[in-house]
Amino acid sequence: MSVLQSLKSVDFYRKLKKDLQQELTEASLPGATLSVVATVVMLGLFIAEFNSYMTVTSESKVVLDHFESLSDDTLQVNFNVTFPHLKCDFASVDATNFMGTHDAGLSARVSKIRLDKNGAQLGKHEDRAKPLQHALEEKHDGPATSLALTADSFEAHHHKHDVMVVNFYAPWCHWCKKLEPVWEKTAATLNQKYPGDERLKLAKVDCTAHNAESLCIKNRVDAFPTILVFRKDDTGTSLHESYHGERSVPAITAWSENFLAQVKNQVPKTRMVDSDKDGVADSHHGVGCMVSGLLHVQRAPGMLVMQAVSDGHEFNWETMDVSHTVNHLSFGPFLSERAWTIIPPHIAAAVGSLDDHQFASDQHIPTTHEHSVKVVRHEVTPSSGRRDPVVSYGYVSHSNNIQKVGEVPTVRISYDILPIIVQYSSQKQAFYHFITNLCAIIGGVFTVAGIAASLVDKGMASLQKKQELGKLG
Predict the structure, then answer these.
(1) 3-state class percentages of the chain: helix first, strand second, coil last, to nearest 5
(2) Residues annotated as catalytic (active site), given as ranges
């Protein structure tokens, strides 16, 4: 019992005895008014403090980017671009740095998917493993045996023959000149092997002729030579496969005979023909291309260049159309689902600023599209502070078109990786801070209200005393 009595002696909150409360305390109207005001003030401050406790505050700062290891000297570039009018056979991706060095991508993984004119995917495109083969010093001494067509005569022959293989060429084209004797000799060979057979015909169209130019534009022929396959049952939406195999009499003859075998129902009908059985189709269809991949480049100003390139064609740059849609462009490793939930919306939007943007070229005017990109590294520290910062790379971009006669239509993405880091952190008020502030609010308001009540009581007592003495007037 003595211990309990000793403990009672340190009681900070001693209470009046119940029988003395009425005698020692007195309620007053000013005191009640101040009590109500104090309660309202405490409630308002509590709500404000609670909102502050629930609010996440953020802070950002900019620091210089120091490379901690050799691996930090490179950066991954991720891209996915759709070209509705550029064939995968010609679509090429090159990386250059600020010194003008080509193939600046230290490692590259690029894939191409062929598209039809509606943008639907037709299949993956495989580039040739070896250079395009051309017949050397081929000669044809006899008369021209392939059909020479114009825009006026084309449709009549198109629907007369079951299969018509057409060589679209330009007289000034070096590769067309090399193909011409091969083409005529192939036509003569087929006429000799199948005399009187009108089901398969080889034809040619001079795209520089005034009466054939519209025909080449209609079929979007901007590379010479272009060899397309037309069938009698074609409709306005039909796809015409193009030939990309060896340019020799035996190769083109064997490839053409495959279509005759399809007409005779000797082999299944297909638009993907591999006549030499080397695993790579000699012909396939598709008018557009979706180019995607990733590169590892040095952390220095550089450029991605996308344009038409071929070791066996010459291009008509006036009709070359590099209209495109940037489906995706980002820098750095792909972010995880957890990372996307951590980074703020404005930083997430900067990760792919060009995503889903379309850029169109004017017809018959060589158009080059330039995209200038400034890249900044972001480090976002989660509010918990217990995990490593989430690293992302955002960028701002500016796009411009260059239209100039003689200019090679190109898509150029110029990037500049700034040597700075924007560190972004978000913090939430600690719970013990909330409790401390809450106690300060209750105690402070209660104390201030008590002081005010004391001053009011003293003032009223002084007035009452003066009134009793008759000093108020």
Answers:
(1) 30, 30, 40
(2) 173
